[in-house]
Amino acid sequence: MENKERIGDLKRHIFYELLDMAGRVMVLVKYSPDVVIGNRGFVGEEKETGLILVFNPKMKFTWDEFGITATLVFGAAPQKCFVPADNIAAVYSPELNAQFITSNQERQAREENAASVAGEGTKPIKRNGAARKPADDSEKNVISVDFVKKILIKDKAP
Predict the structure, then answer these.
(1) Long-range contacts made by residues 11-14, C-beta under 8 angstroms, separation at least 24?
(2) E strand or H helix that includes residue 84
(3) pLDDT tens track of the chain, all 158 residues?
(4) 126-141 in b/e burial notation, b at 16+ Cβ within 10 A?
(5) To 5 degrees, how large is the angle CA 64–CA 65–CA 71?
(6) What predicted TM-score, i.e. pTM, was given to this entire model?
(7) Of 34, 134, 131, which Cα lies nearest the Cα of 84?
């Protein structure tokens, strides 16, 4: 089983655990032509920011090896929906203050490199294959997390 499939299985497992614990779970769906949201589709800024779908145990849906299939209601109109597991960027529960987020590292590196080429300031630092800008004085109280290696905690300025 390749990592992509294993991540999909992990998303599904976390989805059902949060649903069982909190009674509802939210899913952030990133835009893709593979995502079907009935005849509604993605509207406005949703193509850029994604769409949040809310699920509870009373709803009829299935999550198989391909993704989530459900009939969801937007306003008063039911829409047949299909969300491939690859297009689920986050699974979370506000009630439990818990979230599982995945990112497209290739896209992030491309966007950061584009910002650097456009002259948005400092040169990006390459670390673990992803580009990121170095910290400046405004980031002294920020906790920076590198999920590949370790957590870096920056001390507050006196």
Answers:
(1) 11/85, 11/88, 11/91, 11/100, 11/102, 12/63, 12/85, 14/91, 14/100
(2) strand 77-84
(3) 688 889 999 999 999 999 999 999 999 999 999 999 999 999 999 999 999 999 999 999 999 999 999 999 988 889 999 999 999 999 999 999 999 999 865 555 445 555 555 555 444 444 444 444 444 554 455 555 555 544 445 555 55
(4) eeeebbbeeeeeeeee
(5) 35
(6) 0.65
(7) 34
